[in-house]
Amino acid sequence: MICLVRYSDRSFFDSLEQEPEITVCNSEKIGDVTEFNRIWPDFMEDMFIAASSRRYAAKVSPLMGFQRIYALMQCIPGSSSISCDACLR
């Protein structure tokens, strides 16, 4: 289970903080790099738009064969669309 608990002695609603940042990489090879590179930009743009307007988006993009791109983006409740979009990008 993944959860986030955030607390502060000041209001943090609609504040943009980009630290700490955690990056996890998949070590498996992409089967068709050309197909991945074709799908990736539009897939991410769709995710940015959906998540910044609703504060959450989850999507699966099919690739050739059995490979898929799984994406989840989320912003804190109370954040503006602009702050959410800036943080995600």
Provide an overview of this structure:
By secondary structure, the chain is α+β, with helices and mostly antiparallel strands. It has a domain at about 35-89. The protein has 2 helices and 2 strands. The chain has helices spanning about 35-55, 80-89, and strands at about 55-60, 70-75. A two-stranded antiparallel ribbon has the order 1-2. The longest helix has 22 residues, at about 35-55. The chain is elongated. Residues about 1-5 have low confidence and may be disordered.
Number of helices: 2
Strand order of the largest sheet: 1-2
How helical, in percent, are the residues?
A: 25-40%
Portion in beta strands: 15-25%
The residue ranges in which pLDDT falls below 50 over 5 or more consecutive positions are: 1-5
Question: Helix and strand layout, with pairings?
Answer:
Elements: H1 33-54, E1 56-62, E2 68-74, H2 81-88
Antiparallel strand pairs: 1-2
